[in-house]
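Hello K.,

You asked for the raw outputs rather than the summary table, so here they are, unedited. I folded two proteins back to back in the same session to keep the settings identical. This is the first:
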Amino acid sequence: MNAVTIKDVARIAGVSPATASRVLSGNPATSPEARARVEAAVEELGFLPNAQARSLRSTKTDSIALLISDVRNPYFSDLAHAVEQHARAAGLMTFIGNANEDSAQQDDFLATMLSRRVDGMIVVPQGLGEQAGTATSMMRRIVDSEIPMVFVDRTLHDIAVPNITAQSREALNEAIAALKSNGHRRIAFIGGPKHASTALERHRAFDAALEANGLPTDAALHFAGDFRTASGADGARWFLAHPLAPSAVIIADAPMAIGALKVWRELRAKVGTDFSVVAFDEVDALLMHDPPIATISHNLEAMGRAAVQALLAVIRQEEADPLELVSSFTLRPSVATAPPENAVHTEGTRP
């Protein structure tokens, strides 16, 4: 299939190529009607400026785009703060977008930022539906446009751009060891969506940690959440009602943990007494809980700094190597001795 050109956009919009070019360059000397028709044609055709056109624009904007997965997630808020501060120190303004864990919303933001001619992009990428790590067609076209880009926190296996991530193998091994030493044998896992590379990595690392500690893996003890509060609440109810009566649970991100803790509080289930809890992401809500929640956390300051440094290198057309940070486990009172085998989590929950 031939690439869409500005002439195609002009033809569909019913304007001259010169008018289409003025609209796309942000020139105010165009009518609102012409702008509307050109913008509609761009959307219909999926038009993006090609690499040759970008090479003709030598003016820097001293701005970058940052796309995070969910602005409500305090983990990503902290990551955005780190990126923005390090970009500012480098003389760059940051436009921040929210994908809302949705690939279509991601694509809309990235296409808009490309048209605004930002100097580069730092992206927490969203995969396609149930296909872990698979890029959308829009993401492929944006990468093909050759705009400098770095992935942070997550990756796409079929897109080769520099990436800054974190692995949780050692931290999960420590968490499972701590739970085992407190008598826990059946440990549940509330995980994330299949389209997120971090969800896949954490699930695999969880199973590996169980095996490393001599504990069996069991798919029945895995709940598939979506990194959002409501799915954490659903996972909390699933955990309490589970026929295998797991005595501990590891939750794969902070919003799901917050949703779970709210349900358990409402049902008067006692964390650290009735069962033990470990959660990913060291955010204030987990540390302020009574008892404080044991966490597996990343160094978001280091992640944000590394992402900005990598993007600056790409902008300078220098090599930017991938970087994998290592997560850490912090033991807190939410991990305690396992209750007797026949104990219930909360009155009436289990026979």
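The second followed immediately with the same parameters:
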Amino acid sequence: MSGILIITDHTRGTFSALTSEMLGLAAQLRTSGLAPVRVVVVGRHMKGAADSLALDGVDEIVLVDCDAPEFDGGLYERAAAQLAERYEPELILVGHSANGMAYAAGLAVALGAGFAADVFEVADNAGALRATRSGYDNKVNVSLDFMDKCVTVLTVRGGSFKAPAARGVPKIDAIMLDSAQVSAVWTHGRFIDPPNEGIDVSKSEFILAVGRGIQDEKNVPRFAALAERLGATLACSRPVADSGWLPKSRQVGLTGKPAAGCKLYVALGISGAVQHLWGMKHVETIIAVNTDPNAPMFGVAKYGVVGDLFEFVDALEKLLLTA
């Protein structure tokens, strides 16, 4: 038993960012001996799209051709189980998405495998696999160790890993799966796209984030205007989103979105709870402004200002007027 099997996540023929992030995780684990890495694509006529998965660290792409027009959790579970029996991987990665959650647990039961959901860190721990996920409403991190003699199924949280940049030359294999052999447990209705605000915090390079330190919802427009003037995306911490001052789509953190593409992050009045700091772990430069010199945010910030954020913003706005 060895290697990694990745079940790709795609909708209407387009791979999600989560798929390439799982490839990045596999590439990391490959250096500790978890090889080969096989990537599974389930669907009709996906060979052309699968070419985008030929990235560094991928040893083989397995195309599972089937006649199901839309996603079917039962079909994915059957395909993954068959391939697990064929290749005997030590680890199976599934995206922690609506699709992935529909079959991952059932797959683990079918294989008698270890299972953990929504993991954001995976590492080799003295020969055993260690997966980390959140617990108690994201207040603590929980590490789970899996024996190296059993297969493990993990669903991977989006934004936790970086995709490989370099191209590779993997082997291509193809198999046919008869969807008529799978008992239907649901009928596909239609796709409902989520509301689009026109912004995506996870892709923004410059973020101006506000926390409880802004004191009142009536102050939000001022910070929104400042973000626009600076060319930044306005984001927030969980308390601000929970209070309804800004939409949930603008929240950075474990229960929000990761600032995966951010190069400059300005945190105004954010103390730096663990779940918020997780969403900032890919940020290159962090500037923190807080009245509390012991705020955890200063522990990760490159530049810090201990002081009143409104005085800081007053000075910044005056500077922008003269620029």
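The chain is about 25% helix and 25% strand.

Happy to rerun anything if the numbers look odd on your end.

Regards,
P.
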